[in-house]
Amino acid sequence: MADFHQNGNVATLHNLHSVKPEKLERELEIFSKTRKITLILPSLFSELEGVALKNILDELSKVKFISHIVIGLDRANEAEYRFAKKYFARLPQKHSVLWNDGPRMKAVSDRLEKAGLSPIEAGKGRNVWFCIGYTLAQQNSAVVALHDCDILTYSKEMLARLVYPVANPGFSYQFCKGFYPRLADGKMNGRVTRLLVTPLLMALKRTIGDRNYLSYLRSFRYPLAGEFAMRTQILPDMRIPSDWGLEIGVLSEVWRNLSEKAVCQVEIADAYDHKHQPLSEEDATKGLSRMSIDICKALFRKLATDGTIFSHETFRTLKATYYRIALDMIETYYNDAVMNGLRVDRHTEERTVELFASNIVEAGITFLENPMETPFIANWSRVQSADPDLMRDMIEAVKEDNRDFA
């Protein structure tokens, strides 16, 4: 049973299980008559071969309030793109598959690169960015939602609850972040949020002092959730990272561009599970190790833009402070797990904290040695200014791919 707690910074909309999901869906169908809703699905081709996406499409096929589904397809050759078109064809909604590795979308990317506006690296951030640009080019959406394609516990209620706060014309929210408990197979999951982000934000507060930005981030129950929805009007000016710092980067942009009164978080599920990344202790370019470094750099960059001065001494102190807080929190998580009949491997948790502590310093050194590094992709307002024809040409590229490879 949810509580009524509000943190005072960002509005929290709970699931008190007092309204049937069907009622929310009926209301959304009414809202969508005047506020068209688009869903963005960033996907790797490999996810079409898994079990999660099949169930997601089964659930989406029952949804009537979505007018357009934009699918960003990465790591797919021609045969796999053809397969993807057939795979998604059962969706009753209008849908578009962006073949990001196809020659036409690569030509669009080359034009951006010549203008110095191309995303730095391949990944989810780049995929989402192109989907956003395509959605804006369509000019047929008032609300945009986004979620991953590897959610094993997906239901259409999750989407309804995610979209409702920004689709309801009686609400003033322009951005909504989903949250949920990370539980599966009798285990407490969500390692990066539990063991890195939460204690790191607490350690930053102790090390550099209180900041409104830190209080804002700490207000989110699950800041790394990949599910969010927003009014389309805020998208043209939003700059997102191309690396693993996507979720923190989006929250940072929302912090920069919107009033806190326009931001909310909503409880979308009682339990949530998706594909788990390996810790990757031996290779800092992969898995949770890479993710932790990118998240730390995203935080440090944002704090620096707000006037925080960092040094090697700052990061050494931050590491020590984080480590002590994180170890204490492992004890709390363990006790919470025991009372709820869940498993937590304390040895593995401590090894994870040790890796994250080292990566905090690694991210800090990288930040100090290359302060001009920025993984942020240009916003679409700048792209439109630099190349006014590009968004229209992107629509044509997707249309021609659809025709030629049908």
CA radius of gyration is 21 Å
Q: Could you say what the CATH architecture is?
A: Alpha-Beta Complex
User: What strand line-up does the widest sheet have?
Assistant: 1-10-6-9-5-2-3-4
Instruction: Give the overall form.
Output: globular
Q: Briefly, what CATH class?
A: Alpha Beta
Q: Which regions contain 5 or more consecutive residues with pLDDT less than 50?
A: none
Largest sheet: 8 strands, mixed
The tally of domains stands at 1
CATH level-four homologous superfamily name: Spore Coat Polysaccharide Biosynthesis Protein SpsA, Chain A
First-last Cα distance: 48 Å
**CATH fold node name:** Spore Coat Polysaccharide Biosynthesis Protein SpsA, Chain A
Q: From the helix content, strand content and strand pairing, which structural class follows?
A: alpha/beta
Average pLDDT taken over every residue: 93
Helix content: 40-55%
**How much strand content do the residues show?**
5-15%
What's the total helix number?
14
How many beta-strand segments? 10
The H/E string reads: EHEHEHEHHEHEEEHHEHEHHHHH
